[in-house]
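Re: the multi-chain job from yesterday

Posting the exact lines I submitted so nobody has to dig through the queue logs.
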Amino acid sequence: MTNSEQPAGPGGPLLELDGVKQHYPLPRRMPFAPRKSVRALDGVDLTVRGGETLGVIGESGCGKSTLARVIAGLDRPTEGRVLFRGQDINALRGAERKEMRRNIQLIFQDPFSALNPRKKVGELVAEPFRIHRNLLPSGRRRAKVAELMELVGLKPEHMNRYPHQFSGGQQQRIGIARGIALNPDLLVCDEAVSALDVSVRAQIVNLLQDLQRELDLSFVFIAHDLQIVRHMADRVATMYLGRVVELGDYSDVYDTTGHPYTKALLAAAPELRGGPADRERIILTGDPPSPIDPPSGCRFRSRCWMAEDICREREPELVELAGAHVSRCHFADTLIDRPSL
Amino acid sequence: AACSDGGGQAGSDGGDGTLTFETTEPKSLLPQKDPGSQIAMATCANLMEMNTKTQKYEPLAAKSVKSTDAKSWTIKLRHGWTFQDGSPVTASSFVQAWNKAAYGPNAWQGNGMFASFKGYDAMNPPDGSKPKVKKLSGVQTSGKYTITVTLSEPNSDFPKILSTNPTCPLPKVAFTDPKSYESKPISNGPYKVVSWDHNQSVTMKKWDGFKGSAGFSGGATTLVAKIYTSPDAAYTDMTANNLDMMRNIQPAMVAKAKSQLGSDALYKVKTESKQNTLQFPEYLKKLRSPELRHAIAMSIDRKSIAKSLLQGNSAPSDSLVPPSLGSYRKGSCEACTYNPTKAKKLLKKSGGFSGTLNIDYNSDSDKELVQAVSKQIKSNLGIKVQLKPMLGTELQSKRNNGKLDGALFGLWGWSFKSPDQYLSQYETNGDGNAATGYSNPAVDKLIRSARGELNVKKRNAKFAKAEHLILQDMPAIPLFVPKDYGLHSKCAVMNDVQGDLQFYRAGYGC
Amino acid sequence: MTAEPIPQPAEPILSVRDLVVEFETPAGRVRAVNDVELDVRQGQALGILGESGSGKSVTASAIMGLLDTPPAHVTSGEILLDEMNLVGLPEKQRQRVIGSEISMVFQDALTALNPVHTVGNQIGELYRVHRGMSRRASRLAAIEMMDRVRIPGAAGRVHDYPHQFSGGMRQRIVIAMALALDPKVLIADEPTTALDVTVQAQILELLKEQQDERDMGLVLITHDISVVSEVTDETAVMYAGRIVERGPTRDLLTNPAHPYSRGLASSVSSEDLKGKRLPAIPGQPPELNRLPAGCSFAPRCEFAQPECRISAPPLEEVAPGRRSACFFSDRILRQ
Amino acid sequence: MSVDRQVLSGPVEDIADEPNTWHRIRSLAQRPRFVISGALVLIMIVMAAFPQLFAGFGSDPNAGCNILNTNKPPSASHWFGYDPQGCDYYTNVIYGARASIVVGIVVTSASFVVSAILGALAGFYGRWVDALISRVCDIAFGLPFILAAIVVLQLFDHRTIWTVSFALALFHWPGGVRYMRSSVMTVRNREYVQASRVLGGSDFRLIFSHLVPNSLTPLLVLQTLGVGGVIAAEAGLTFIGVGLSPPSVSWGLQLAAARQYVSESPHLLIFPAIFLSVTVLAFVLFGEALRDEFDPKGAS
Amino acid sequence: MPVVIGATFIIYALTFAMPGDPVAALTGSRPLPASTVTQIREAYHLNDPFLAQYGHYMWNLVHGNLGIDFFGRPVSGLIAERWPNTFKLALTAWVLKLIIGLAIGVYGGLKHNRAGDHFALIFTVVFLGVPGFVIALGAQTLFGVQLNWVDPAGIGAGWPMAYILPALVMAFEASASLARLTRTSLVDVLRTDYMRTARAKGLSPSRSIWKHALRNAMIPVVTYLGLSLAGMLGGAVIIEAIFNIPGIGQLMVQAIHNKEGTVVVGIATLLVIVYLVFNLLVDLTYGLIDPRVRV
Ligand SMILES: Nc1ncnc2c1ncn2[C@@H]1O[C@H](COP(=O)(O)OP(=O)(O)OP(=O)(O)O)[C@@H](O)[C@H]1O
Ligand SMILES: Nc1ncnc2c1ncn2[C@@H]1O[C@H](COP(=O)(O)OP(=O)(O)OP(=O)(O)O)[C@@H](O)[C@H]1O
Ligand SMILES: [Mg+2]
Ligand SMILES: [Mg+2]
Ligand code: NI
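And the result, structure tokens for all chains:
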């Protein structure tokens, strides 16, 4: 272990998001028109504990990738703080910031586009050490790269190849090798396996789990594929229009769902149904509303089959259902009471 | 065949007596403002003019121009001459025009032609201050038809000066309404301006009221000056039968024309009036040694260049004046005979030459010729030669301000046929002296006395003597005397007056 | 919905026989589709399952005649659409069939639509070209078609451009285009891969519904087993350019006869596997220009025997209605 | 760090041969465009560097001239004939390559570098950096080139190929900036750039290690297309009298001089024109070939 | 606006920095009399420091006064006389170039990497490689002199006859880049999914190219086209000289030769403005053909 820091105690908060908002300003349509912005994240509170895997689900455009970017420090949130081991990562400067970078790594959805096509794999895997020069004497770099490549199941001989000469699964392994090179504490996987073939996906999922065990990693695992999230995650957060609408242990969220949106998601996923008759289908109508002008009150009300007047008037708070299971719905309790709707 | 089918509206069509000639867009149609303008020449009848038939200067608008001492001149005008608008041509038509042109602040281009007039300095103070007088003190009228001119120094060439554009008369309207006058001038010459289509053409018609004899005019009933920005374009138009006359064509074009248009189309100017020289600014110490200059003069194989590169269209020059001038004596420049061995010896004698000999020249001028000359110097003397082409503005300001950094390759031509026009370059502050700044009291004295000499023979002898003196210092190396060519269609019958090819004098031969 | 055993209609509307497609590449000719045979029957959905690069799209493009020649060459085989062989059909005749008798939905709806034309124009074009309708009539038809694929406010949106629609809407428009002329067969090449779960469900629903309504044949290409199991009646599994197994979807997925299908079916995680390693097929799919001799799956196959590396097993009937290309299908079926 | 091999979920198949030298050569041979244009460019460059290798009539184009041979047409002993100075034209044309190609390459590469850097900065930082650079480019675009060249060239006492290159380069870059800027803007948001940033890479690293190499291709093609234009611009300067001057030799000078002899001595025009055209062709083809070559995917 | 100011400033500075003395150039062999020089220098503010001169110029400029040249002719008049000629020439050339370049580019794009493509490439590169004046002179001799289809020089025949030949020459010279650009763009477009869709709709090749490919392929070309017209307006010096077209380019070169600051800056300012206007037009056109950038 090259990690010099005190490993976080098991279960202690490694990462905390405190009212994080991320608004992307839009260009004005007309001069002097009021400036609008995309509310990609609109008040997100989350914690990730050391060694755990937090799954994040939600449909396209709900802000999952933005969340990943904010956690990784790529975007500075418009409001709120991202605390890593209690320190606001955006308040850090210089060496401290670099150190933070080292500890939080991000793995991208498209393995190929996350690799510079003009660099050899050896260079790509060595890049972390080029950036953090003090971590490793340059003489040992090559050996370390070989070690990493072996660790993720690639042949060190392939260092001199270019990314396109690898298959998608192998490319994702390269990405993972880069991600774990600096021995981070937290790995954010933004749909890291979505682009992979079924058979290869299983390989990568296994690899990630193995690495987590070996290296004592925490994961933020973002995916469309609800089945994989269930497989990987300890806890699951459902996002809708820039907000967390449900959060809890995976079993709570999947089995005693406390939010109609999560419910609709689960129902839409054929793989969870096992067979056509197993679960009722809820086909959500319409598209998600624009994150520029989210609906008043409950954001999901425009598509919710349970919506009532109250939903329009008041945005529900995150209510505790059972233990750490929280949901942002006025009717959460009724939902839990009727697991199959 | 220009007689067959003309191209555009301005083309030369058989029978109607129209001739077209090449020109550039005039800056002005006022003769005083554009002294070289062929259009001004065609429209103005000066006091004196060259007669095509006799090839002599003869009074035209003047009845007589006389002097006994070459210093004060009496000019008698012909009676009954009018401008093209019918207003009479009188002494004041001339005097007013001269005063205006000679007044420095007006900045008219023809200003310099009045430098020898008494009172010129007062109108152009050498210190640059604003002149207090607006009239030439040396010019007086007595009565309607007599002008007396006093020069600051005797000059027997004075009648010739009276044949140049700047001395043309101007009618009253030119002063009362100068703006509209400039776009459609009214003069007293054989042709009158009909229209000026900017950047395209100036059309002139023969003026019936012209009172001069045939020797002073041409055969075309309509003259069209077609405006070109480059001679090449004009040449092309010539080959396409859209143009009747060109002049001052470059040597390379001569060869081209011979094969494309046939030698019939070439008109060889009978009198050579130009000369190429290599001039040495006196302020460059490096180039001051006469031996060095002689060595350079000797190192140039003029004959071969003339024969091969210039294709016989130039003759080697062996004098500071072209052979057509009376003061010319064959071989007066002894160092102008090619002799590389002697040249080398002379160079050694002069103490050798280290560094680079720069040759400054106008980038518009004949590059190949300069290059050939420089090559000769380089290979026969073994010295470094660097060519420095420059834009006109740059070269002229360098020359006039004494800022040249090497020898100057130049082409000189006369405004009227006189040795003075050439040798004044070597007179202190003389015309064209700015290039070399050469100054030699003995030479100055000789030239001044030659100028005042009314006897032609004596005059020429004095000029020749001055030339001899100058050549000992060799401020300029004579190089070539180019033969001047014009191009013409079948309809245009060209002729030149003592080296000057004037389009309006062309006969119409269809 | 596919629980009942399917009564076999006699004649397939589309049937592909011994299709071979080769590509010219700098490294030589590669065989992207090798001896593929498929049958699509009226009112039935055929799923084609396989990993990336296994030749699914090339097969579909070959059927539609969309392959660029060169580099692609259909070297042998026939594609029978209602007895008419599409291979070698004169260009003019083919144009008449393509888009009307048989049509296709592509994976990426964002790029499948021309960004500079309105959607109404793009749908209407079909009516104008194939049916010779007037501009006006074709627009009305387009609106109707958009209605059919449940685009809200279709009449008001015909003049919108593709970028003004969301991903799911665009996919609907693509489907509308494919269905516009009432084709006998619709090929959908990964129609939902780019979409997220909720929209995916909507689109699959739509496809299924339209198929039933029109009683057409549907070919659904995907690498998502759950989609296949959800929608299709029959399934073909492709591997390295070959069909390695065919059969009724239910049977094939619950009891695969080919080791590859087996690997695929079992690598899907389920609740029971939580916290455990997923069963994965080891290794990587082979590259087409260096296919192993014999069975191309042999290097990754747990059942492989020396004989597998010598000759490729043919696609043979292993059970009623089931065909598999493995020497050990029986053994696997029995396990 | 010690992790069991069991982490591997299975053996990894060998996917491709190492791209060895032989493989490269063979794949080169399959791209005749690259080989031919590359060879031509190489010949031109060698010609520019060592003209004496090609010139059969001495190592100085100005030596061994005889003014009496002015413009003589090609003959068996002098393939290209003579120039107006009576010098062997073949030697001259060969030596002319130096100036023309040096000018072409120097100007192109200089403006390549400048526009790459400025374009990258503008594209990467956006906002005021972008606005500033774009405005500067607009201004530079609007400047009359001839005027600018004249002013710049008069700063130097002697006009050599270097000063001419300098003057041309000074006004050649703005076009590239636009291209570079827009291609950087597309690359900027690629994930591998983000990936490097996540690792803590500095802006400098992001720009020069990731952005620039991946967005150069359009610029490269543009610039190689422009080589001919640059060579012609040198000739154009000579034409208006502010370019190179003899005894320098360049195709531009030769073409400018040949103009007045076109009908009499066409060989003066033909030979440098052919050389120039072939060079331009070679560079254009080479640029396209390079693009394929630099595209890492192009090889497979 | 900042661009106009910046550009005029730099141009003014450049003219100021140009070698030579404009007053010296006014005369022939003999230096002008000192008083004349003084007079001219005063009249044209040549003795003022640079910034004062520039300020003076700009002051006049905003009052719509472009100043006068050394012969007293108003610059605005000089430009007005010649601008229509240049404009006619450039526009004709541009349209021809559009036709030629697009035709060759589309042809090359359709025959991508086949013989036709190579042929198109070589064709364009020959025009790129052969110096412009060679082509111009050749065309002039052939069509103007030998065949006598058009006047070889001058604009006496008016538009279009007088402009067609020089415009064609310019068009051919400039069509190379356009052809290359079009070709590349078209090749890219032909590879897109929506072209595949078009074929899957059973459209004929010609229909899918005309209706679907071309407009998309034009999107990247538009920027180039707009700027190239701006460029052509300023850059036809040699063509204007050869075909004797009195245009802006010629005027500019002459003015530079004579160091006539007012004329140079006047023309240059005009060209900068033209350039900006075309930039704007390009943006508008862009919106027209690409609905995605429409607001
Ligand atoms: N840089 C940006 N500028 C403006 N809007 C942005 C930006 N990045 C993201 N958005 C917008 O923010 C919202 C959330 O985007 P995000 O990428 O986080 O969604 P996502 O949940 O990751 O979706 P997907 O599942 O498709 O990846 C979207 O509406 C997106 O358009
Ligand atoms: N133009 C081409 N040139 C060479 N090879 C090609 C070409 N097009 C496709 N191939 C090859 O054909 C094989 C099959 O490709 P195909 O697109 O059918 O795969 P697929 O099963 O649809 O994969 P995916 O799930 O990724 O869409 C691939 O190995 C691919 O490399
Ligand atoms: Mg995302
Ligand atoms: Mg596919
Ligand atoms: Ni005639």
